Amino acid sequence: MMGPVTLQHYLVLSMVLFGIGLAGIATRRNALIMMMCVELMLNASNLALVAYSRHLGVETGQVMAFFVMALAAAEAAVGLALLLAVFRHLRTVNVDEMRQLRG
């Protein structure tokens, strides 16, 4: 029989998701995949914020998670626009092949 879901369960899940995102950024060279890994890491931090907020009985963690979601939406919009502009210029989304952007 399974017991109740505790704060530790949420934090372990958050750490696993953050680790997957970090490993994805470290190993992948496709800019779209890297952006998805950043989104995964932001969602993992949101999970930890909401879990702590729920555990402590305060709403500040949930408010901070809302601002992180707004930041993630802005990051996705600006990041995709930049990536689209780079793709139109270089015809690739592989970050190793974007050496022409160096100053």
Give a short synopsis of this structure.
The chain is an all-alpha fold.
Question: Would you write up a description of this structure?
Answer:
This protein is an all-alpha fold and 103 residues long. It has one domain: Helix Hairpins (Orthogonal Bundle). 76% of the residues lie in helices and 0% in strands.
Write the layout of secondary structure elements.
Layout: H1 7-27, H2 31-56, H3 60-90
Helix pairs in contact: 1-2, 2-3
One letter per element, helices H and strands E, the order comes to: HHH
The first-level CATH class name: Mainly Alpha
Second rung of CATH, namely the architecture: Orthogonal Bundle
Task: List unreliable stretches of 5+ residues.
Answer: none
> If you average the pLDDT, what whole number results?
93
What are the salient characteristics of this protein?
103 residues, 76% helix
